[in-house]
Amino acid sequence: MVLAYQWTLAVAFLLNGKIGKFLCQGVSKFFKYRPPHFDELTGARCYPYFYLWRNMLTSILNKRKLFLYGYKPSVPVVFLYGKKKPFQFSSRKWENYLLEHERCEIHGVESGHWIMKEATDFLRNLIVRRLKDLKR
Predict the structure, then answer these.
(1) What is the pLDDT along the chain (136 residues), one digit of tens a residue?
(2) Does one domain contain both 42 and 11?
(3) Structural domain count, the chain
(4) In 10 A of CB 125, how many CB atoms?
(5) Fewer CB within 10 Å of terminal CB in the chain, N or C?
(6) What is the pLDDT of residues 57-68, one digit of tens each?
(7) Is residue 44 part of a domain?
(8) CA 57 → CA 8, 79, 81, 124, 131, distances in Å?
(9) Alpha helix (H) ranges present in 31-83?
(10) What's the pTM value of the predicted model, to 2 decimals?
């Protein structure tokens, strides 16, 4: 299901225009998820799926460059996810890794996929706090 979801959205990004919008909104309808900004959903918003899969497939062809294999962030990571999403993409292993590293944070937000639209105040306050921490 995850592959079908992400690949359809990657194709929506590539095609963009009316077809991309149709595919993007079609995926939303299929999962019975109609956000308040449904009419704004277009293929242009699907670029993360395209680049994720392009990089993964490229790394399979280039054995010297395994995509994210052994990846270790070089800076503190703030990981956010919407608790109300139809399904999650992160693993417990990734969350445990972050919990073991100083200044990393994990937040399950009371929202769906679009945290920036559904939990604006939380996100704004988090960003402001993290930027203030950088100044110290």
Answers:
(1) 778 889 999 999 999 999 999 999 999 899 887 888 889 889 998 888 898 888 778 777 776 665 555 667 778 889 999 998 877 777 788 888 888 888 899 999 999 888 888 899 999 999 999 999 887 6
(2) yes
(3) 2
(4) 11
(5) C
(6) 877 777 666 555
(7) yes
(8) 16, 24, 25, 35, 35
(9) 47-61
(10) 0.58
User: Within this chain, do residues 84 and 56 fall inside the same structural domain, yes or no?
Assistant: no
* Closest by CA position to 68, among listed 102, 93, 86, 99: 93
What residues make up the domain containing 115? Answer: 78-135
Burial class (CB in 10 A: 0-12, 13-18, 19+), 111: buried
* Token pair listed for 136: 């110290």
Q: What is the enclosing helix (H) or strand (E) of 82? A: strand 78-82
Residue 95 Cα distances to 31, 87, 113, 126, angstroms = 26, 16, 18, 18
